[in-house]
Amino acid sequence: MRGRPEGAPTGFEERIMTAIYTFDVFSTLDGYGNHTGDWGGYWGKQGPEFLEHRFGQYSEQQRLVFGAATFRDNMEMAAAFPGAFEEPGSWITQLRNLPATVVSNTLEGPVDWPDATIASGDAVEVITRLKQESDVPLRSHGSLALNRALLAAGLVNRIQVTVIPVITGKTGATRIFDGLPDFDLTLLETRTLDGNLQELIYQPTLH
Question: Among candidates 26, 8, 50, which has minimal Cα distance to 166?
């Protein structure tokens, strides 16, 4: 099923105000963004349709936004596993090659990343300005602390949640939405990938 609820802003209406900002996150059914168990990457649930869909999304013209901790993690993984960030047809390769803004008051350039700009200062002010200036959509994968702050400030236009079909009551790590205020969510799109994963795209509104 795909569609737009009646009364929801059109893409054009939103673009004339500011660039669309999407918070893109993987979540277990019980709301965890990571694990300490033996599940492996993607909790072992990835399939060809999911990976192809991710590649398509990250092949679109856009700018990525990272918090400092997530950016450091990605740089460390790229150094440790260079093949994973250079594989043709991989969404991870596309992620690394997209222009990126890193919100950090501790990192200093240059950094080992093809097209990264470090922006210091208050995160809400940095992203408010970036949304006003950017002529392409903005997307942030992970970076939970940063995106919690941006959600609370009303700067996130889309929450894209890929629901991983597992419950990690024992090994779940990092609750995604803890500490946030209450939100109403308007469902904009939904799709099933590989018959098992659910991608849900919501428009959040402070309750």
Answer: 26
Smallest CA-to-CA distance from 144 within 178, 119, 168 is with: 178
Q: Among candidates 161, 143, 144, which has minimal Cα distance to 197?
A: 161
End-to-end CA distance of the chain: 26
Instruction: Look at residues 66, 26, 43 and name the one whose alpha carbon lies nearest to residue 162.
Output: 26
Work out the angle between the directed axes of helices 123-133 and 144-152 (0-180°, nearest 10). Answer: 80
pTM recorded for the entire structure: 0.90
One-letter amino acid of 163: V
Tokens of 66: 């990272």
Residue-by-residue pLDDT tens, the chain, 207 positions = 444 444 444 544 444 568 999 999 999 999 999 999 999 999 999 999 999 999 999 999 999 999 999 999 999 999 999 888 999 999 999 999 999 999 999 998 789 999 999 999 999 999 999 999 999 999 999 999 999 999 999 999 999 999 999 999 999 999 999 999 999 999 999 999 999 999 999 999 999
